[in-house]
Design a protein that fits this description.
The complex is a heterodimer of chains A (225) and B (170). By secondary structure, chain A is of the alpha/beta class. Chain A has five helices and seven strands. Chain A has a domain of 157 residues: ABC-type transport auxiliary lipoprotein component (Rossmann fold, 3-Layer(aba) Sandwich), CATH 3.40.50.10610. In chain B, helix 2 packs across helix 4. The longest helix of chain B has 24 residues. The radius of gyration of chain B is 21 Å and the shape is flat. Classes of the chains: A alpha/beta (225), B alpha/beta (170).
């Protein structure tokens, strides 16, 4: 009785299993691969002039860490054959900040000669979920600014956004996405270098450096109670 | 006759050229848009607030109301502060809408709706230049980010109107 009920279902199950098996390699084949025609290069363009600091400290970027949690950070867009970056987002962000600091003569020659060391944590780089009618570019990072002498550090957040027109043609789409990310990167770098958070951090850390030698005991003994 | 025609065309062009810079010169130097806060009970994702912030900045740039649209928390020169704006606000209400109601009744019933209040203040003395109330409605099947786009557009339009009216001599 039970066999009579299950037997007509068997071909259906077999067809379903077959379709699933056929779909699996198909899904793997749809996974976009980086090729020269679907790879974009993000150019930072003109460096951002940073704000004026009282003591003009020298900065050094120790490292940029990817904290986006994205397993494929170079894949900007999965649809329409995929769109890839030619470099790691961490390298692009480091280059952008370094370029701007160098142009303003605020970049130290090496870590040892720097007053403030920057450690950048990148949370988002590329496109974010938008309305579907346009491209929403977003670059977000947080930086730990550390005084090399005192060891004190402060966090500075920066975010850059850009909205670009949507496109039907693939070439126009690539161009618009490229411009969108470049704009968002420029905006984030500007937000970091011209932000009040960085100004306050530099002021606070410079104060710490001024106070420390006077407060520290000359003999190197720990302060008594 | 030809000379008269050429002269008339010339005058029209000259008038156009004279009128254009007047319209194109922004009244303010910088505008800083802040991320909007959400009132209690408003169920919108932080991604929506982020997107609205980006859209608002894009609309401000497009409207040519200011020379430069700066990011949140960016420093402004003291000399530029009297001609700088800061826009902040709150999303006061969000209704998800109802697809069935919209399909059966129509005429705007069951639409998603969003209300927000914004303050435009002058950076130097924190004087409130205008208060804006924006209310947008969209089809419930549409992405909520489309609503952000509409709200940003409407907000900048109202802001431009309010600021232009405010500076007109009585």
């Amino acid at each position: 009785m039970l066999l009579n009920r299950t037997l007509p279902l068997t071909p259906v199950l077999l067809i379903a299993a077959g379709l699933t098996w056929m779909a699996c390699p198909q899904a793997g084949a749809d996974e976009p691969k980086p090729k020269p025609e679907n790879t974009i290069s993000i150019q930072f363009g003109e460096p951002v002039p940073p704000q004026k600091f009282e003591h003009s400290p020298k900065f050094w970027i120790a490292d940029v860490t990817d904290r986006s949690g994205n397993p494929q950070p170079m894949l900007v867009m999965k649809e329409r054959g995929g769109l890839f970056l030619d470099k790691q987002p961490t390298a692009i962000v480091k280059q952008a900040i370094e370029q701007s600091l160098k142009a303003a003569n605020l970049l130290a020659a090496d870590q040892a000669s720097a007053d403030l060391v920057l450690r950048v944590y990148l949370f988002h780089f590329g496109l974010a979920a938008g309305s579907g009618l346009d491209f929403f570019g977003k670059v977000e990072f947080s930086t730990m600014v550390k005084n090399t002498k005192t060891g004190e550090s402060q966090e500075v957040k920066a975010v850059g956004t850009s909205i670009a027109k949507g496109a039907v043609r693939k070439k126009s789409m690539q161009k618009n996405v490229e411009e969108d990310i470049e704009e968002a990167l420029h905006d984030a770098t500007r937000n970091f270098l011209r932000g009040t958070q960085l100004k306050e951090a530099v002021e606070a850390l410079s104060k710490g450096a001024d106070v420390t030698p006077a407060a520290a005991p000359s003999g190197g003994k720990p302060p008594s109670k | 006759m030809r000379i008269v025609m050429v002269a008339v065309v010339g005058v029209i062009f000259a008038m156009g050229a004279l009128a254009k810079p007047k319209e194109g010169t922004p009244q303010y130097k910088t505008a800083e848009a802040k991320h909007f806060a959400t009132a209690e009970g408003v169920e919108l994702s932080p991604a929506f607030v982020d997107y609205f912030y980006a859209e608002l900045r894009a609309e401000l740039t497009k409207a040519k109301l200011v020379n430069e649209v700066i990011g949140e928390g960016e420093a402004v020169d003291d000399a530029d502060a009297p001609k700088s704006l800061v826009i902040s606000g709150t999303i006061t209400e969000y209704k998800k809408g109802n697809v069935v109601k919209s399909a059966l009744i129509g005429f705007g019933a069951g639409f998603k709706s969003l209300s927000m209040d914004a303050d435009v203040i002058r950076r130097s003395d924190k004087q409130n230049l205008c208060v804006l109330h924006v209310h947008v409605k969209v089809d419930p099947r549409w992405n909520e980010k489309v609503m952000a786009k509409g709200a940003a557009h409407q907000m900048v339009k109202e802001m431009k109107k309010a600021l232009t009216e405010g500076t007109k001599p009585a």
